[in-house]
Amino acid sequence: MQSLAPFDTNANASLSTNPNPDHAAADADTNAVVQPVPAGLNHLQFQKHHVALVVLSTLDVMLTWTILAMGGMEVNAVAARVIETFGHMGMTAYKFLIVAFVIALIEIVGRRRLSTGHKLADVCVAIASFPITVSLTQLVVVPLM
Questions:
Q1: pLDDT by residue (tens digit) across 70-85?
Q2: Rounded CA separation 47/60 (Å)
Q3: 47-69 and 114-144 are packed helices; what angle lies between their axes, rounded to 10 degrees?
Q4: Residue 115 phi/psi, 5° resolution?
Q5: Which helix (H) or strand (E) holds 104?
């Protein structure tokens, strides 16, 4: 197995992702590092969905903290119990453990059936959007009442 330095363009030229051999020379002349898509468990298939899940979950945690600080309550019974037992840091850890589990689940399903993985990832992002929509609505509408 050949070891490649990250900026060794001569070694990477032979790893061109371009399937047309006529373009291999053009790839080598660009001085760009050509990184092959890694095989196996090192490559995440749904990175944009994963980033969306992390961002949405971060917003959910921040909005939950804001609502609780304003005297509101957590409507998710399990999350409320986690907050009661472990505090805000426990809730944050709980939330991101769930996110890690969901990301792993999406990747496992996607490796078996790509189309099902895409559908699952889309559904998970939609589900993660729901509490943020509810929280933002609470923060805007409730003070107006």
A1: 888 888 899 999 999 9
A2: 20
A3: 20
A4: -65, -40
A5: helix 77-112
Which secondary-structure segment (H or E) carries 39? none
CB neighbours of residue 23 within 10 Å? 11
Burial 93-126 (b: 16+ CB within 10 A, else e): ebbeeebeebbeebbebbeeeeeebbebbeebbe
Q: What is the token pair recorded at 137?
A: 């609505």
**Which of 51, 68, 64 is CA-nearest to residue 131?**
64
Quickly state the pLDDT bin for 41 (edges 50, 70, 90). Answer: low
How far, in Å, CA of 28 to CA of 12, rounded? Answer: 8
CB 16 within 8 A of CB 36: no
